[in-house]
Specification:
Length: 285
């Protein structure tokens, strides 16, 4: 029997991203608040019983690979291997989340594939699914159930934050694609700020977000390599954001505004000044 399913994969921003240490295996330990936002990729999956494993991925963006370099492709393969399932999987990916922008698009696609595969194959075991997600990348576990969360360690420790006051967001993405591995390669201990005070998390939950809360230890490193990220952040602030920061490893920048009208006006102004910038108004989910 052929089984079909569709999922929407949301982007995310990191309201803060602090480095707390480095493990012997080289991975950095983080303290971050992840929030999903209303920018989405769309995935359709078709699954057929088979005598061997086959995965195909088709994307409407030529810039997105359709082989093992794609996290959604790898998620399907790793799921089938983990649960010893033989099947043919066809994935159709409609891409809206900019790549290399710190918005988690690839990880979200992988999380959506794992969620869909679990439903289609009747898998209800959370521990093996988390193990597959961790194998794919540090952000993928969050996208198994993307809700506002404090995320620590290398992504495996997650504390849901429940209902939070939702600010008005502008997301601005410069025409650069930032490799996460390169940013971490240039990160030094003097860039680490350590764990966030619990008072910062409380302020975020209550909607009292200010510049002092939006700490991103990767920002200085990324701006040193791509100065346009820093210029874009300054522009977002100049256009009325009460706070702005780079998200993830960059190069996307988000600004927090007092109203959706202000955020929309700032986005139009940015695109008018620099047509190569992609600007989105968004809300937290």
């Amino acid at each position: 029997m052929v089984k079909l399913l569709r999922e929407w994969a949301p982007a995310k921003i990191n309201l803060f991203l602090r480095v707390t240490g480095r493990r012997p295996d080289g991975y950095h330990e983080l303290d971050s608040v992840f929030v999903p936002i209303s920018i989405y990729d769309r995935l359709d999956i078709e699954l057929r019983p088979a005598h061997s494993v086959s995965v195909q991925l088709f994307c409407d963006s030529d810039a997105v690979p359709g082989d093992e370099r794609n996290l959604a492709f790898r998620a399907a393969y790793e799921f089938l291997a983990e649960f010893s399932i033989q099947a043919e999987v066809l994935i159709k990916l409609h891409k809206e989340i900019p790549s290399g922008a710190g918005l988690g698009g690839g990880s979200s696609d992988a999380g959506a594939v794992l969620r869909m595969m679990a439903v289609l194959c009747g898998v209800k075991q959370s521990s093996p699914l988390l193990r597959v997600a961790m194998k794919l990348g540090a952000d993928v576990p969050f996208f198994l159930n993307p809700t506002p969360s404090r995320v620590r360690g290398v992504g495996e420790r997650r504390e849901p934050l429940g209902q939070i006051e939702k600010p008005f967001l502008l997301i601005a993405v410069p025409p650069v694609e930032v490799p996460t591995t390169l940013v971490f390669r240039h990160l030094r201990p003097e860039h680490w700020s350590g764990p966030a005070p619990d008072s910062d998390v409380l302020a975020i939950v209550q909607g009292r977000v200010g510049r002092e809360h939006l700490v991103n230890d990767l920002e200085q490193v990324a701006i040193a390599q791509w100065p346009e990220i820093g210029e874009l952040k300054k522009l977002v602030e100049a256009l009325g954001a009460r706070a702005a920061a780079m998200t993830g490893s960059g190069g996307g920048v988000f600004g927090i505004f007092n109203s959706s009208e202000q955020a929309s006006a700032a986005g139009r102004d940015i695109v008018r000044r620099a047509p190569e910038i992609r600007a989105f108004t968004a809300s937290m989910l």
